[in-house]
Amino acid sequence: MGTEIERKFLLANDDWRGLAEGKPYCQGYICSGAPGTVRIRIIGENGFLTIKGPTRGLVRAEYEYQIPVADAREILANLCSRPLIEKIRYTMNFAGSIWEIDEFKKENDGLLIAEIELENPHQQFVMPPWVGREVSDDPRYRNSSLVINPYSTWGKK
Amino acid sequence: MGTEIERKFLLANDDWRGLAEGKPYCQGYICSGAPGTVRIRIIGENGFLTIKGPTRGLVRAEYEYQIPVADAREILANLCSRPLIEKIRYTMNFAGSIWEIDEFKKENDGLLIAEIELENPHQQFVMPPWVGREVSDDPRYRNSSLVINPYSTWGKK
Fold first, then answer.
1. ipTM score here?
2. Domains in chain B, start-ordered, CATH in brackets?
3. Most B CBs within 10 Å: which of A75, A80, A82, A147, as the mutation test of the B interface?
4. Confidence class of residue B5 from pLDDT cuts 50, 70 and 90?
5. pLDDT category, B147, cuts 50, 70, 90?
6. A63 vs B75: CB contact, 8 Å cut-off?
């Protein structure tokens, strides 16, 4: 089993900009929630299918497989809930840790999330100065939640 | 896109027995229904992940990928709805067509289904003498339905 252990933060400022090139991500969900979530993702010209288990604390089972990008495009078009998640992902090294910053587009425009993937839930790391409030425990910031309740609609319900 | 076009029948008698060796199948569903169904299947020592679209008449979009059998075992154990489908599949040639007969076990014990996969919905084929009533249009006989409403409970609700 793959295991995903990650912490999520909002951004405190724009000082991270220019530190890395961004890559376009497009992803959607065939299903999300209990017992499992099935995600289709296209990064540039590569397609991936990912199965994730329920989140327990910061830890989540994860199984990822590369699939033909043509299949990924068809499945995103025909079998995933709307809206799809479109974002630019910036990957950068800070003090020996890999950080990913997602800049969301379309229905989630304006939302920025920084993530760090850890080896274990108690791992120490240096907090970059552009990282703000932690949102690891807030389910609204999950990508699968942003399909159901996009950022552009927050505070309007 | 792969496309699945199949017709399903009950069995009229046991005359097909002895025509083919059976292989054990174990499968489960991470999700089923609209817009897509995600199935995990183990055949002998091989694992597969299959995404199917909604059924339109006899036709259904299908995307299948081989995955490590260890992953398939974990996903079946932790992320699939109960009960799992366990069956023996017998594959045989009759008059130039490939037929598959599924002999269900456990919660679906007693159920036998014969399937023929077609190139197009109007394809002609010779009906074997051991094939009985067609059930292509009856959603109760779908494997994903047999998880929710197993054969052993039919007529008891």
1. 0.90
2. 2-153 (2.40.320.10)
3. A75
4. very high
5. very high
6. yes
Residue A75 contacts B, CB cutoff 8 Å: yes
List, as one string, the DSSP characters of B102-139.
Answer: EEE-GGGTT-EEEEEE-SSTT---PPPTTEEEE-TT-G
By residue count, chain B amounts to 157
Q: How many CB atoms lie within 10 A of CB A73?
A: 14
| Whether A63 and B71 lie within 8 Å, measured CB to CB | yes
Residue A98 structure tokens: 């890999």
What whole-number distance in Å separates Cα of residue A38 and Cα of residue B156?
Answer: 34
Partner-chain contact B75 A36, CB within 8 Å: yes
Q: What is the pTM of this model?
A: 0.91
Active site residue A25: no
pLDDT tens column, B30-84: 998 777 899 999 999 999 999 999 888 888 899 999 999 999 999 999 999 999 9
